[in-house]
Amino acid sequence: MSTLNVLRYSALALGVFVGVKTDFSLKSEAAKKSEENEYAAKLKLIEQAKEQYAKLHAKKEAPKTSGEKFDLEDPNLDYASVILSAVDSLKQ
């Protein structure tokens, strides 16, 4: 009878130990997954903030010139149009 009680309580203790160990590992895994989800959500918010900042603070493009290239050595150069285009580019 004594051997039967030893085996019974040993099995009970082993079952309790395995149950506690399993519970601890499942809780640990759930906590880790929760932290990863929070981290991913924060990264997503950071990316959205970067996109919004880029939209609000977009770099202004350089003002386009008339596209005409002029050669100062050209004898037929219209100096008035060159000066006016330079003044217009400074106003922008």
From TrEMBL:
- Source taxon at top rank: Eukaryota
Does the keyword field hold Membrane?
Answer: yes
**UniProt-annotated location(s):** Mitochondrion inner membrane
Biological process, per Gene Ontology: proton motive force-driven ATP synthesis
**Coiled-coil ranges per UniProt:** 32-59
Q: Which InterPro entries match?
A: ATP_synth_F0_esu_mt
Q: Show the GO MF annotations.
A: proton transmembrane transporter activity
A Gene Ontology cellular-component term: proton-transporting ATP synthase complex
User: Could you tell me which Pfam families the record lists for this protein?
Assistant: ATP-synt_E (PF05680)
Q: Where mainly located?
A: mitochondrion
Q: Report keywords, A-Z.
A: ATP synthesis, CF(0), Coiled coil, Hydrogen ion transport, Ion transport, Membrane, Mitochondrion, Mitochondrion inner membrane, Transport
Quaternary structure, per UniProt, is: F-type ATPases have 2 components, CF(1) - the catalytic core - and CF(0) - the membrane proton channel. CF(1) and CF(0) have multiple subunits.
Q: What does this protein do?
A: Subunit e, of the mitochondrial membrane ATP synthase complex (F(1)F(0) ATP synthase or Complex V) that produces ATP from ADP in the presence of a proton gradient across the membrane which is generated by electron transport complexes of the respiratory chain. ATP synthase complex consist of a soluble F(1) head domain - the catalytic core - and a membrane F(1) domain - the membrane proton channel. These two domains are linked by a central stalk rotating inside the F(1) region and a stationary peripheral stalk.
Family classification:
Belongs to the ATPase e subunit family.
**What protein does this entry describe?**
ATP synthase F(0) complex subunit e, mitochondrial
